[in-house]
Amino acid sequence: MNPLEDISNKPDILVVDDTPANLRLLSKMMTEHGYNVRQAINGKMALTAIKAVKPDLILLDINMPEMNGYAVCETLKQNEETCSIPIIFLSALDDALDKVKAFQAGGSDYITKPFQLEEILIRIKNQLTIQQLQNKLQHQNQQLKTALSELQVTQAQLVQHEKMVGLMQLVAGIAHEINNPISFISGNIEPANQYIQDLVKLIQLYQHEYPHPPKTIQNMIEEIDLDFIVFDLHKIMGSMKNGVNRICTIILALRIFSRLDESDIKLINLHEGINSTLLLLDHRLKLPNSPLDIKIIKNYDKITKITCYASQLNQVFLNLLSNAIDAIESKLAQHQVEFQNPTIWITTELQDKNTVKIKIKDNGIGISPEVKTRLFDPFFTTKPVGKGSGLGLLTSYQIVVEKHQGKLDFHSVFGEGAEFVIEIPVHQNLIKSEAQSSF
Known about the structure:
- By secondary structure, the protein is α/β, with parallel strands linked by helices.
- The protein has three domains: 3-115, Rossmann fold (3-Layer(aba) Sandwich); 150-261; 264-439, Histidine kinase-like ATPase, C-terminal domain (Heat Shock Protein 90), CATH 3.30.565.
- 54% of the residues lie in helices and 16% in strands.
């Protein structure tokens, strides 16, 4: 075995004592029993030695010049890097108050002089065993924390995956079911309008050719107010046509948002996805219990089609825009008079032809400092029970960062609003796998 490897595997013990005879005796004894021993004749030298190489255990005398053992121990315990080193005090002081002071300073054990070598060896072994068990316990605790975190993330992925699959299927199903009857109405509304116009012309021709109809017909004309019907029919048909066009637009937005009939990875128009999401959230732009509407300001750059998971990127837009609306509603609830201009800004930028940046900014309530550090934690939400699952931002982060190799960051001043910034590559080779399909 390499001698250097043998030394590195031995427990390292630092002996601090201002009496050379004690140093020699303790060093010889512990070296013979398989320990690697270093020496220090005062407190300052001990701190220097510990800073250079952290020992596994310290044997520390109390009465030393300039800096006594209590001061050395307190200094070590105040340092995060050295606070866990076990310290055994060696002292001729046998008073109970001295022992109490030693333990208050942070000592692990106390041996009075003159000491028995066997006692020192046993106490050293006990303290090293305790230290090893503590280190093992800390390692296991860290493994449990990591496992719990991974479990929470996996659970969040499964919950969000099932939720979004169900939502997408529902959206696609509704769009499909509505599409057929609306297509029928849309296709027949123009002929129906033409038939009505022809009938109106026929009635007008009758009125022209027979200006004095029988009394019963005249009474009916007055009763139904024929002139108003003729005037209003055109407006009614126009409103019906506008309504059908609106429904067709919503169906298209639903199909663009869900994209269930398309491949996962494809070239898409980014602005199409944002606009379809805004259309689905249009009803929320009219604030409840307020005459105010949320204003949407778009600043779109000229961006070519990008490669991405289209439906999942739409989920990100839906989550961020919904949160922006929630933040504005929260601010409105707290500042009914002062808050008069609720606004969401959506900006897209093409950077160096390789990266697209999407910014979604609002002037809502903002994010408090204590919430910022937990914003992407699984199941963490500041919303009331039933309004938030605590999965939206975590899922958005996973979609942007893990699936698209991008970035998701945010900036916020509490009380003034928040801005979320998405950066994703324009072109990328996205590999579809089971792990990636878990969102």
